[in-house]
Task: inverse folding
């Protein structure tokens, strides 16, 4: 296992991204909100992939945890009567707690299903949550909630939340990077490769699946509060439980970048976010149509994603990073082929 | 060599001068235009009314520029609109407002379509201290937040159907009842605007002692309100209030007709932008509609003449009958034209103060703002669809026609048609 | 619950809810039948099912505006959607047929977004409807009203269902379709052109949805975004009744229609869609728990 100069590539890349992230809000003050949403997209893609690419359970309903986070934080800010930053912190804490609890409760029920049933059940979850919150007067019903106003000029507010989201995204990345190298990560991959065999081996698949979902929920819940504060208005259908936007984009970004890898979702989030902003600016009126088209093209022609494509073109990059991205590189490659074979015989 | 270098140097200097001159003239050209920024719903669920809003803004700008523009101090400026698509979502709206202000440097903003979007955008303009004059965000919550830079030319949404409730109370004796015996059914779309309409109705109903027997909220994707209508048949209320933007109006008219559900008064919002009389024909007869404005009202101003003149001009320009959403958007721009001239300056703060002192008559109605930014000079009107046309029936000062109440039962309408 | 009291005091309204439910259920059943067909033969789940319904509705809206009598526009909608379905198969679907189900879910989801947004751009977000001018049947002293067009839609759905069953049983293509759904490789060995079968099936499904959509436009109102609810309902019906079970699909379709009407009446219309989706989740979970006892999984 030699450590060539390429072995440091991921670490160097990560450091570069962090440095850019720290500096960008000051260099491009007009793009701060876009930047904040970029970090959010990275978080969305990474958390989706925990259950999606790594475990093989494609959820269309992860947005539920995010929405819970938005609402919980906004509610704490509205009702707890604390100072702004204290209530924000408390709110985010409550959000994470509620999200994890929701995952713990729903997990055993929903994660018992496989494949398409799981996917559509989670789709249902997102819609039900949106309608329930839209019909509940305490949280503002269809009018939504306006969270507390940031005590400072708007430029500062946006920068603040941009950094918060960046911190959350980095935290998510770091946690997952560590996790994928542990036994837990291996079990998740085993579930993805062949769940029946994994169970037969004695692995507690349900427990692991639920734990994975709880982990994703944790980060999604945390992210809800800052986004609510940034946008300034929590709408149940358009922001909190935006199933047809955020909910689908999560999946798309991970697939675009290469699901089942660590950097895949990050790359996917970057490409997707930039493309989307470009569409919005230059294809006025047709951006959603273009988005639909993009989804079809990505899924049909690049199901292995950018990373998968790169791996096919430049395998030596990935072999060289055996030490650093061990959990990401080879096993995932093998697994994708394995999964396909499995599906054909099933 | 020496000569060549001199030649190239002078060429460079000449080039620079030319560039500078061009830049200066470009800046000069920029300076003769005042840009009004706006978030408009070009896609998404509000796209129809978003178009109405944009057309309203463009109509105003075109007319004002035709008439020479706006004179601010000693310079005359043309107006222009810079807009982005907010996709009918608040997150986008707030984002693009920031782009308009921070990146595109607009100093004056026009409102988006819908209260939800206005709610999301108002904090942004407030923080940047940029005035926003809007004509399509009617939620009264907007005016309880202490905003100084928000001005609305329209009546707040809770006022839409209060008039209908009061009208119902007046007419109570015609069906042999006291106002407090009357029963109301409400079905609204679960969004900001409609919830406010409902609140206004409930408040005025409570004042008269009326009872609300159905209080349903319709989700935005619903295309069928038959279960609500079954309840209406069961409970026989005296008035059914439906507010759900265009979809609500169309659905209510179509399904009450299809299912032959009789209510003495069917009160709706957005009938004219949904074009219920034009598209649904006889089914829309006798429906009572709330409106911010009507072309038959005798308001007038120096840019457009009378309300009817405006309507004709609009129809000629855009090819469809003008809904009130466009009229109020045009009015917003007129407020700016008036305020900019009075302020004599392009400083946002001064313009804001000038707007606050507005006391202007427009083809859309009188505009005068209270200190929360609401327009307190104008009132809502109610139409009734009679003979396929929208006739103003209330307030009595502007009424063109008498209200038909109670609306004839469906069987009677059939036989009336046959006779 | 006051609403419950209404039903108890005036039982006739139960009849109204039942009638409404069954009549709309027939249309759900159509969409479900098409979905079952595609699922069984191509082994993909078509998330764009609701959008095919929506587009069928728009065909009728525009045909009626051009002077075509609404009822005659129903076969027109079916034909138009057949062509669209066939084109979509050739462009996109054939590539995802042999991949895992998730890919087809995501691909058709993308397709559904594409179609929705395209419809929004081309037709506008306004609701549309077509009045076939058939009038309303009034029963029980006016308490029950059944627009004739709903009866026509119901009859048309049944007729279409029967025609489809006969087609699948008797015609050559129908038999080829059934053969392919049982075992694609074996069918290929016997000489069935499975690619053509797949294309025809997908196109047929689109046509079925188109016809259903045409009926929806005449009976209710349509707009570009109502498709997803139909997709979910179709999926639900198929999951509950099983892929090959036509009678089950009809029965569960009617059942779902009725359940929805009651939910709207009792809980308020704002929870009607949530009810449908929630029911889906509950059914799936219940199924899963039942299978879990036998140590099996929902496949």
Result:
């Amino acid at each position: 296992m030699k450590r060539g100069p390429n072995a440091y590539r991921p670490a160097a890349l990560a450091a570069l991204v962090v440095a850019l992230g720290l500096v960008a809000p000051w260099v491009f003050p007009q793009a701060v909100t876009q930047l904040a949403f970029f970090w959010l997209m990275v978080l969305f893609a990474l958390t989706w992939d925990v259950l999606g690419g790594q475990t093989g359970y494609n959820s269309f309903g992860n947005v539920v945890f995010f929405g819970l986070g938005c609402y919980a934080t906004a509610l704490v800010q509205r009702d707890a009567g604390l100072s702004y930053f204290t209530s924000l912190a408390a709110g985010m804490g409550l959000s994470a707690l509620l999200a994890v609890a929701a995952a713990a409760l729903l997990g055993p029920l929903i994660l018992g299903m496989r494949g398409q049933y799981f996917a559509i059940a989670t789709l249902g979850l997102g819609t039900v949550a949106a309608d329930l919150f839209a019909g509940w007067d305490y949280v503002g019903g269809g009018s939504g909630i306006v969270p507390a106003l940031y005590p400072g000029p708007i430029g500062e507010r946006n920068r603040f939340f941009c950094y918060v989201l960046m911190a959350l995204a980095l935290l998510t990345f770091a946690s997952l990077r560590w996790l994928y190298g542990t036994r837990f990560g291996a079990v998740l991959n085993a579930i993805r490769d062949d769940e029946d065999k994994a169970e037969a081996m004695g692995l507690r698949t349900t427990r692991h699946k639920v734990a994975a979902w709880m982990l994703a929920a944790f980060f999604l819940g945390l992210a809800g509060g800052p986004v609510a504060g940034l946008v300034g208005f929590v709408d149940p259908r358009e922001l909190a439980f935006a199933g047809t936007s955020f909910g689908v984009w999560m999946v798309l970004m991970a697939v675009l970048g290469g699901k089942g890898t660590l950097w895949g979702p990050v790359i996917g989030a970057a490409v997707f976010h930039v493309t989307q902003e470009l569409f919005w600016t230059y294809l006025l009126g047709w951006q959603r149509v273009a988005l639909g088209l993009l989804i079809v093209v990505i899924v049909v022609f690049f199901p292995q994603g950018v990373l998968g494509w790169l791996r096919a073109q430049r395998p030596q990059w990935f072999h060289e990073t055996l030490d650093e991205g061990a959990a990401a590189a080879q096993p995932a490659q093998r697994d994708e082929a394995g999964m396909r074979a499995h599906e054909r015989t099933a | 060599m020496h000569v060549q270098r001199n030649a190239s140097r002078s060429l460079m200097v000449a080039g620079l001068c030319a560039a500078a001159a061009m830049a200066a003239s470009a800046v000069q050209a920029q300076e003769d235009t005042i840009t009004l920024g706006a978030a408009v719903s070009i896609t998404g669920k509000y796209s129809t009314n978003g178009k109405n809003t944009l057309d309203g803004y463009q109509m105003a700008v075109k007319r004002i520029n035709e008439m020479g523009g706006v004179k601010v101090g000693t310079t005359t400026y043309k107006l222009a609109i810079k807009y982005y698509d907010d996709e009918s979502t608040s997150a986008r709206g707030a984002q693009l407002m920031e782009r308009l202000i921070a990146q595109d440097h607009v100093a004056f903003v026009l409102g988006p379509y819908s209260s939800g979007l206005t709610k999301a955008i108002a904090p942004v303009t407030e923080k940047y201290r940029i005035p926003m004059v809007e004509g399509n965000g009617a939620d009264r919550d907007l005016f309880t937040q202490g905003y100084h830079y928000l001005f609305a030319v329209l009546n707040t949404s809770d006022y839409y159907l209060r008039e209908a409730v009061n009208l119902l109370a007046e007419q109570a004796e015609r069906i042999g009842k006291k106002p407090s015996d009357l029963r109301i059914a409400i079905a609204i779309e679960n969004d900001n605007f409609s919830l406010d309409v409902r609140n206004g109705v409930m408040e005025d109903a409570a004042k008269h002692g009326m009872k609300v027997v159905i209080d349903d909220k319709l989700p935005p994707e619903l295309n069928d309100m038959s279960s609500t209508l079954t309840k209406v048949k069961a409970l026989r209320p005296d008035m059914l209030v439906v507010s759900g933007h265009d979809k609500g109006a169309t659905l209510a008219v179509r399904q009450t007709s299809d299912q032959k559900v009789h209510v003495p008064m069917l009160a709706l919002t957005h009938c004219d932008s949904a074009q219920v009389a034009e598209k649904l024909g006889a089914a829309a007869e006798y429906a009572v509609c709330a409106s911010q404005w009507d072309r038959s009202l005798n308001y007038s101003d120096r840019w457009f003449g009378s309300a009817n003149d405006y309507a004709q001009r609009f129809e000629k320009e855009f090819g469809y009958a003008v809904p009130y959403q466009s009229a109020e958007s045009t009015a917003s721009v007129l407020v700016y034209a008036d305020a900019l001239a009075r302020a004599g300056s392009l400083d946002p703060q001064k313009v804001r103060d000038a707007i606050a002192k507005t006391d202007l008559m427009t083809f859309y109605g009188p505009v005068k703002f209270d200190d929360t930014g609401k327009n307190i000079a104008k009132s809502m009107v109610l139409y009734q669809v009679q003979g396929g046309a929208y006739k103003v029936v209330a307030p009595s000062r502007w009424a063109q026609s008498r209200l038909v109440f109670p609306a004839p039962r469906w069987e009677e309408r059939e036989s009336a048609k046959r006779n | 619950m006051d609403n419950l009291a209404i039903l108890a005091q005036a039982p006739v309204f139960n009849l109204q809810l039942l009638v409404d439910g069954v009549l709309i259920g027939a249309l759900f059943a159509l969409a479900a039948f098409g979905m079952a067909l595609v699922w069984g033969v191509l082994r993909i789940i078509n998330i764009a099912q609701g959008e095919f319904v929506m587009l069928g509705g728009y065909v009728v809206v525009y045909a009626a505006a051009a002077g075509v009598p609404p009822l005659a526009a129903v076969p027109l909608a079916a034909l138009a959607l057949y062509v669209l379905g066939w084109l979509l198969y050739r462009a996109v679907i054939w590539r995802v047929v042999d991949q895992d189900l998730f890919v087809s879910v995501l691909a058709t989801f993308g397709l559904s977004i594409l179609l929705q947004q395209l419809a929004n751009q081309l037709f506008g977000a306004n609701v549309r409807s077509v009045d076939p001018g058939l009038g309303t049947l009034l029963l029980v002293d006016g308490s029950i009203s059944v627009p004739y067009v709903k009866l026509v839609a119901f009859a048309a759905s049944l007729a279409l269902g029967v025609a489809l069953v006969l087609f699948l049983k008797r015609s050559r293509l129908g038999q080829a379709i059934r053969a392919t759904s049982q075992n694609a490789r074996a069918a290929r060995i016997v000489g069935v052109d499975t690619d053509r079968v797949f294309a025809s099936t997908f196109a047929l499904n689109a046509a079925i949805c188109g016809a259903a959509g045409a009926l929806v436009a005449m009976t209710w109102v349509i707009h570009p975004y109502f498709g997803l609810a139909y997709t979910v309902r179709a999926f639900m019906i198929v999951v509950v009744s099983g892929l090959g079970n036509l009678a089950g699909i009809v029965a569960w379709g009617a059942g779902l229609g009725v359940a929805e009407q009651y939910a709207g009446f009792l809980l308020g219309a704002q929870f009607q869609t949530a009810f449908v989706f929630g029911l889906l989740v509950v059914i799936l979970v219940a199924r899963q728990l039942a299978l879990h006892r036998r140590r099996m999984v929902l496949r």
Summary: Chain A has one domain: 26-345. Residues 26-345 of chain A form one domain. Chain A has a mean pLDDT of 82. The radius of gyration of chain A is 20 Å.
